[in-house]
Amino acid sequence: MNKKPVTILGALLLVCALAPAAWAQEDDASPKKKPVPKAVHEARAKAAAKKAKAKADADAKAKAVAIDLNRATKAQLKALPGLTDAQADAIIAKRPHRSKTDVVTKGIIPAETYQAYSKRIIVREAH
Q: The pTM is what?
C-alpha cells in the first residue's frame, strides 16, 4: 500500500484541526477597547437631552402658532408654504374637517404639499 496519500491526508487533517486554535490566538492578540470615561458618558447624555429639549420646544412653538383648518381665514391659510388661492378656497368650502389629513383625502391638496406643513396645522371641532 502507498503511504503517500495517507501521509498527505493526515497532514491535511492536522492543519484543519489546528487552524481554529490559531485564529483564536490572533483574536486574543487584538488590542482591547478602552473603557469610555464617565465624563464622556455624561457629556453624551447632556447633549442628547439638549437636543431632545430643542425638538420639544420647536414642536411646542409650531403647535402654538398652528392654524386650525376649520377656523382659519383665507389669509391665514395662504401663510402656509405652497398653498394656492384655489386650495385655500377649497379648504374653506369643504369644511368641517374631521382631521388634518382630510385635506389630502378630500383631494384638496397633494400629499407632498401636506407633508410640507402638516406640523403647522390642526383641526379642532367645528364651531
A: 0.49
pLDDT of 1 > 60? The answer is no
76-113 residue pLDDT tens: 998 888 889 999 999 999 999 999 999 999 999 999 98
| DSSP one-letter string for the chain | --SHHHHHHHHHHHHHHHHHHHHHHHHHTSPPPPPPPHHHHHHHHHHHHHHHHHHHHHHHHHHHTPEETTT--HHHHHTSTT--HHHHHHHHHTPPPSSTTHHHHTTSS-HHHHHHHGGGEE-PPP-
User: C-alpha cell of 108?
Assistant: 384638496
So what's the architecture of 67-122 in CATH? Answer: Orthogonal Bundle (1.10)
- Over residues 9-55, the pLDDT tens digits come to 777 777 777 766 656 555 555 567 788 888 888 999 999 999 999 88
